[in-house]
């Protein structure tokens, strides 16, 4: 496992995007990327004072994000529920005014802390 500052575990911000937005619902790729950016920014903002978030931001030039794909709204909502039950802090981004859940982003965590909850999701394509 790669280490961050002073040998601390490397922090990762996971972003999970609905792949059906591009592949089935024909959203433009740029619009989907925008959703991921909204969720990542919101998660950082909501957990700004968290120690891991602060350390992540201090390592500005070596931030590490992983973008995963969820098959559809049900998979994304199910993941959000699983994360909530596990006490994993995240932001489910719901696009307005359409009220469509599009993606979610976790606050930065050491990879080993949350990876097991995300292992069934593959890299977004």
TrEMBL record:
One of its GO terms (molecular function) is peptidyl-tRNA hydrolase activity. Keywords: Hydrolase. It is an enzyme of class 3 (hydrolase). The keyword Coiled coil does not apply. Its EC number is 3.1.1.29. It catalyses: an N-acyl-L-alpha-aminoacyl-tRNA + H2O = an N-acyl-L-amino acid + a tRNA + H(+). CDD domains: PTH2_like. Coiled coil: none annotated. The keyword Lyase does not apply. PANTHER family: PEPTIDYL-TRNA HYDROLASE PTRHD1-RELATED. This is peptidyl-tRNA hydrolase. It comes from Knipowitschia caucasica (Caucasian dwarf goby).
């Amino acid at each position: 496992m790669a280490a961050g500052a002073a040998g601390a575990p490397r922090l990762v911000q996971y972003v999970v995007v609905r792949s059906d937005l591009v592949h089935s619902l024909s959203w433009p790729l740029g619009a989907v990327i925008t959703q991921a950016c909204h969720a990542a920014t919101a998660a950082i903002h909501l957990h700004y004072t968290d120690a891991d978030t602060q350390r992540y931001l201090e390592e500005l030039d070596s931030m590490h994000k992983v973008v995963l794909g969820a098959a559809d709204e049900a998979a994304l909502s199910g993941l959000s529920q699983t994360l909530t039950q596990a006490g994993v802090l995240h932001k489910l981004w719901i696009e307005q005014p359409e009220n469509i859940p599009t993606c979610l982003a976790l606050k930065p965590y050491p990879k080993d802390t949350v990876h097991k909850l995300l292992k069934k999701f593959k890299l977004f394509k």
